UniProtKB/TrEMBL annotation, chain A:
The name this protein goes by in its record: Pyruvate dehydrogenase E1 component beta subunit
Pfam families in the record: Transket_pyr, Transketolase_C
Cofactor: thiamine diphosphate
CDD domains listed in its UniProt record: TPP_PYR_E1-PDHc-beta_like
SUPFAM superfamilies from the UniProt entry: Thiamin diphosphate-binding fold (THDP-binding), TK C-terminal domain-like
Ranges where the Transketolase-like pyrimidine-binding domain occurs: 4-179
InterPro entries membership: THDP-binding, Transketo_C/PFOR_II, Transketolase-like_Pyr-bd, Transketolase_C
Domain of life where this protein originates: Bacteria
Keywords: Oxidoreductase, Pyruvate, Thiamine pyrophosphate
From TrEMBL, chain B:
Naturally occurring in which organism (per UniProt): Kribbella pratensis
Keyword terms of this UniProt record: Oxidoreductase, Pyruvate, Thiamine pyrophosphate
Domain Dehydrogenase E1 component stretches: 61-338
NCBIfam families membership: PDH_E1_alph_x
Protein name in UniProt: Pyruvate dehydrogenase E1 component alpha subunit
Superkingdom per UniProt: Bacteria
Pfam families documented for this protein: E1_dh
Region (Disordered): 1-24
Cofactor(s) the protein needs: thiamine diphosphate
Length: 324, 387
């Protein structure tokens, strides 16, 4: 067993997928010699060649649009969008072409495309480099949206996403790229679209994904001092949510707090609150609360600690649901 | 600043006085032409059409049939049987000339107006109507005829074509002008302003992808004339991207065939992309929802009618190929037969049911969507038995 960072785990997962299937091609800006601005694709071009690890022109719509063509030809493109805020030139191709192609062809065409997007804040970056646009993809029929919260998931989920015949937007928590964990490849992975109960508890459920997983685990540890036993669920899959796991937990704890960096309104937390209200209405002791980024553009980075949910804000949310 | 930048000449900021505006319909246009509007063959230093008159008869038949199919579809729309139709009227030579230049293994990425190219590729015309009748969004399998589904979003398909061509490269399917593979991307003058088209040019150029960009410059993007899209002839843009561009008389089926064939050969042998500007005219409305009398002169249309793509071939065949009237009558009769079948087929298209259209959103359906479908089925069933 080796300790591996989340970034290196994705690298290893990409490598494994490329070794298994010669149709897997990786494409994006600066991903070749440089290995990507976060080094997630480091060494891949050297080992798999320029035909399979493609340094593209600086044109995000071009990356996704040509990936559509490669997929039509039988390839399985893995596209890297360099930063969250840079995906929007490709939005038309993702929404109108990638997401709808299987449907409009009545199943004759598949779009086995993975779109990797490093996302979220907390790294002191300039504007457009810290955003959490997952809702803008999760809302679109035809797309699946996932996010890994730890290196083990990172390793397996990228491979499972590449194997999937559905297009998947894969959000990578960039501030967690250097988090380490033991990776034991002999332990089989979970199914891709399942949530994971990371910590069992009885008093309330923290629902989170991506960069907020670590935050919520820390909050749950801190809550023990207050005599509170929190359940923590890494959702892992945003579209579709694993509702069965969410409902089972909330029916048990009777309280839920959703935590994400994305803005409050119309966020993933809104959908969870609606679903939990529909399914768990008679079990709830409190409304589902959301601890999230605020409904402002992502702020200048010297203020980001106040903008992003942290341990204290999560515990404040827990206090509120316990207070009903 | 390390050096001073000379200021732009004032006229740069006065686009309406543009001295280099593209030629208008009434002006002489430089392009490759091998058959004049009067039906006379002419020589060109770089391009020749060396196939026999039987082939030209075949082109004539193709053009008459697709015009007849198009006319019938327009009529079906007028009678309420189609929600919309995008007519190819006037662009038959551009589509048949380029479509017939394709080899079996070449791949086509059309817009929503490429009915003539679809015909060349063997797509059943009835399948084209589904999208416009509202029963499907493209009923054919692109793999059956190497003809991708129609793309409505302007220019998006040029990137798909370029990516597909990059796949052909990776499959080592190029390198031979006859047996290699190429991809052709159709788009219009309006699309030339789209970012995707310009990105496709860049990608095809830097990766030397085997793609032919076939622009039908029909002079109008709905109501906007070509001078709202460009101040230079469109084919000249290719030079800035680093590959050849050529303008062809898009109403001349022989020239379009010759030019496209050469570009395809170039792509198949691994020499990279070509931009073809087929200079033509949209003789009908943009779609059946459009009213061109609001924005263009009837004189222009009358002028272009003199350059009709079918009439010139008719004139050539009558005058120089000793083709008798029976041939023309037979083609006309064949067109009428196809149109009648198309009409009957259109009216017989089954109405789709929403229950079936929860499928194929995903390959692996989500539990949420399965639940919604079941709810819809139960809701619909609750009305059964009601008058």
């Amino acid at each position: 067993m080796t300790k591996i960072t989340l970034g290196k785990a994705i690298n290893a997962g990409l490598r494994a997928a490329m070794e298994k299937d010669p149709k897997v091609v990786v494409m994006g800006e600066d991903i070749g010699k440089l290995g990507g601005v976060f080094r997630v694709t480091e060494g891949l071009q050297k080992d798999f060649g320029e035909d399979r690890v493609i340094d593209t022109p600086l044109a995000e719509s071009g990356i996704i649009g040509t990936a559509v063509g490669l997929a039509l030809r039988g390839y399985r493109p893995v596209c890297e969008i360099q930063f969250d805020g840079f995906v929007f030139p490709a939005y038309d191709q993702i929404i109108n072409q990638v997401a709808k192609m299987h449907y409009r062809s009545m199943g004759k065409i598949t779009m086995p495309i993975v779109i990797r997007i490093p996302y979220g804040g907390g790294i002191g970056a300039v504007e457009h480099h810290s955003e959490s646009p997952e809702t803008l993809f999760a809302h679109v029929p035809g797309l699946k949206v996932i996010s890994c919260g730890d290196p083990v998931d990172a390793y397996w989920m990228i491979q499972q996403a590449i194997t999937s015949d559905d297009p998947i937007v894969f959000f990578e928590p960039k501030r967690r790229y250097h988090e380490k964990a033991e990776l034991d490849e002999s332990v089989p992975p979970m199914p891709l679209h399942k949530a994971k109960v990371l910590r069992e508890g009885t008093d309330a459920t923290l629902l989170c994904y991506g960069p907020m997983v670590k935050t919520c685990l820390q909050a749950a540890e801190a809550a023990v001092e207050d005599g509170r036993n929190l359940e923590v669920i890494d959702l892992r899959t945003i579209a579709p949510f694993d509702l069965a796991t969410i409902f089972a937990s909330v029916k048990k704890t009777r309280r839920a707090v959703v935590v994400h960096e994305a803005p409050y309104s119309f966020g993933p937390g809104s959908e969870i609150a609606a679903r939990v209200t529909e399914e768990c209405f008679y079990h709830l002791e409190a409304p589902v609360l959301r601890i999230t980024g605020y409904d402002t553009p992502y702020p200048p980075s010297r203020m980001e600690d106040d903008y992003l949910p942290d341990l204290d804000r999560v515990l404040d949310g827990v206090d509120k649901v316990m207070g009903y | 600043m390390s050096e001073s930048v000379p200021g732009p000449a004032p006229e740069v900021f006065a686009p309406h006085k543009a001295p280099v505006s593209p030629p208008q319909a009434s002006e002489e246009v430089e392009f490759v032409q091998l058959l004049t509007p009067e039906g006379e063959r002419v020589e060109h230093p770089d391009y020749t059409f060396d196939l026999d008159d039987e082939t030209i008869k075949g082109f004539y038949r193709d053009m008459v049939l697709v015009r007849r199919i198009d006319t019938e579809a327009t009529a079906l729309q007028r009678q309420g049987e189609l929600g919309l139709w995008a007519s190819l009227l006037g662009q038959e030579a551009a589509q048949i000339g380029s479509g017939r230049a394709l080899n079996k293994k070449d791949m086509v990425f059309p817009t929503y107006r490429e009915h003539g190219v679809a015909f060349c590729q063997g797509v059943n015309p009835l399948n084209l109507l589904g999208l416009f009748r509202g029963v499907d969004q493209g009923a054919w399998d692109p793999k059956d005829n190497n003809f991708h589904l129609y793309t409505i979003v302007i220019g998006a398909q040029t990137l798909h074509a370029t990516g597909y061509a990059m796949g052909q490269q990776r499959d080592h399917a190029i390198g031979d002008a006859e047996n290699g593979e190429a991809t052709i991307a159709y788009f219009g003058d309006g699309a030339s302003s789209q970012g995707d088209v310009n990105e496709a040019f860049i990608w095809a150029s830097v990766f030397n992808a085997p793609v032919v960009f076939f622009c039908q410059n029909n002079q109008w993007a709905i109501s906007e004339p070509i001078d709202r899209q460009t101040r230079i002839p469109l084919y000249q843009r290719a030079a800035g991207f680093g590959f050849p561009g050529v303008r062809v008389d898009g109403n001349d089926v022989l020239a379009t065939y010759a030019v496209t064939q050469q570009a395809l050969k170039r792509a198949r042998e691994g020499s990279g992309p070509t931009l073809i500007e087929a200079y033509t005219y949209r003789m009908g409305a943009h779609t059946t929802s459009d009213d061109p009398t609001k924005y263009r002169l009837n004189e222009d249309l009358e002028h272009w009618k003199l350059k009709d793509p079918i009439e010139r071939v008719h004139a050539y065949l009558s005058r120089h190929a000793a083709v008798d009237h029976d041939f023309f009558d037979e083609v006309e009769a064949e067109g009428n037969k196809i149109a009648a079948e198309l009409r009957a087929g259109c009216l017989a298209l089954p109405d789709p049911v929403l229950t079936d259209f929860f499928q194929n959103v995903y390959v692996e359906e989500t539990p949420q969507l399965a639940e919604q479908r079941d709810q819809f089925i139960a809701y619909a069933a609750s009305f059964e038995g009601e008058g």
